[in-house]
Structure formats: C-alpha cells, structure tokens
Amino acid sequence: MSTLDETLRKATALAGEATHEWLVPKAPLSTELPLVELQISYEEKRKLHAELKHFAIGDSACGLRQMPALGRCLEQLLAPEKSRLLRDFQHCDEVALVIRGLPVDAQLPATPYGGDPDIAELPVVAGAILAVLAVLGTCPVGYQGESEDSVFRHVSPRQQRETEKSSYGSLLDLGMHVDNPHLPLSCEAVQQLSACPEYLSLTGLRCELTVPTRIVAIADVLNMLPDFVEQELLRPSFSVRRPDSFDHQGKVLEHVPLLYRPSSGGLHCRYNMASVSAHCEHSRLALQLFAAAASHPDVVRSVLLQPGDMLIFKNQQTLHARDGFAPRYDGLDRWMLRVFGVNDRKRLLPISTTHPFIARA
Question: Does residue 16 have a pLDDT over 50?
Fold first, then answer.
C-alpha cells in the first residue's frame, strides 16, 4: 500500500462516516513523460565557453550589468529552436526545464564547506547561468538574510550545519517545498517584503549520483487528491514562518491560504513541509494528505545534475526536495549554484542602493 493510500485509510477512519465522500481519491496521474530537456551541443558549448571568458565576471553586480549582452551571445550561438524554447518557457504550460551541457570552469575550487568561494573563481559557469536567465526574461535576485552581496548561493554541505533543513544541510531529508514561501506570491501585492521568486535555477558543479533533485508539479499533486483537500488549502487556515536558510526566524504570516487560484487564472502555492502549520482539524488533514501525495512516485520526477546541467522550474507551481546524505568532506561533495528569478523588478524592495539585487525578505 502506498503512503498516500495508507494516509487516506487512516484519515477515513479518523474522520468518520459523515466525511467519507471527502476522502475519495482521484486516479493517480502518471508522469512517465520526462521533463523537457535542452541539450547544448559540443560545438555550442565550445563556442560559448570561449565567449564567456571575455565577459570576465567578477561579482554579481558585474554579471548583472552584462546580462543583456550575455543573453544576445547565447541566442546567437544556440540553434534557433533552442533559443525559442528558452524564450517561450515563461508562458508555456511546462513547469520545469533541464538544460544539459553548459560550459563549466576548467579548474573548480574545492566544494565549499565554510565560506563561499568568490564568483570570480567561477566566471564561465556564472556567465552561462546569467545568459540563460537573460533569454528567459527574468531578473536574478538574492534575499536579505540568505545573502549579503550575491545572487548566487552555493548549495553544498556545511560543517556544523548538517542537520539544518536548508540548502546547507545534508544529513536530513529536505522535504517537498516552495522556496521563500513567506514572501508575497505573484498574485499578491508587495508591501513590506519583496516578491517570492517565480523561478529557481540549480546548476550542477559536482554531482552525487545517489542524491538527485526531486520535483513535482503542484497541479499533478492536486489532480490525484479529493476535491476537499484543495478547498481546505484555499482557506486562510495556515501559518508560514521563514525557512531555516534565513538568519532571522519567527512566524511572519498568520491565517493565510497555502493555495491561490486568482480570478485571472493560474495556480500559486506557498507550501513548505518544514515551515507550515495548520490551525484546525480539517486543514491539518488536508495538509497531511497533500504531503503524502506530493511524494507519490506517480507524480515525482528525479533529476540528476551533472556538471554543467541546469534545472529551472517555476517556484510557485512546483515543489522540490532531496534526500539526506552523509558528506565526505573531501572537497568533492555535491555542489550546485542556485539563482532565483523574479519577473517584475518593481516587485523587489532593495535593502541598499549599493546592492539593488538583494531584496528585503
């Protein structure tokens, strides 16, 4: 019996006969089709690597200033159908895209376990990431409390932080979640805090073959659950606190929904397994069922990122996770670069004029 079936069985026993009709699951939606992939050819990779050296990206500010030129460079080197796939991603129905074979710097530093290496040590892969995001038409951003001066976050195990449920943790499973769910979603107004990112990109530098990134489309999760689950998740019955990756903690949202279906269309979610709590029995049951369905093998897709592979997904329409692992601390552990993207720069509230790409969070 699957985790979802077992959860439904227990929930039915607890809920009583009057609510049995709530708990009839829909048929699981099989996701045998792979994620859309864009393969960079050997010749495209070689030419892009040579061009990126001329940009000499030393930090985030330098890279962001050159994004328009980086985007033009990438579009000129890619086959037209590949450029079109990137440009159309923002408005298509697909929620995730894998790009295989971007150029990576020849001499990578050791996987960082304490302080982060300067992005000047990774100018080629940093330029490749910014070039892709430029063609996508999104604005890279870092968030106060997670970053001081860079849009790049090094996703790698950190000593003394192994049991933290963040991109720096390792030993514990990182459950299904939307990143930065305490921030205003695309359908909400920005007031004191900046917008939640529309995009999250992960680019592989070193790969752990047994630790893929797992992602699931939120629409697929809802399609296999009883209707009452979505109805409960649309109610303002939840609290959301800042994720553990932020320096400052505390509950920042009270009595909010986890799902939003605005009248203009679309689906937005702020679910984070580690930072969400429910206020009543029905909302707790809905949260339990949603969590079980989000890990169902019929909807989860696993992505292994080799060096130079980039996974981009729509953060508010997708959940992602990874299993725990034991770092070796030999300089060759799993290492990725994460960059967020926001579509509307006006929805970012900079913490300073010197670093306008670091947003209040």
Answer: no
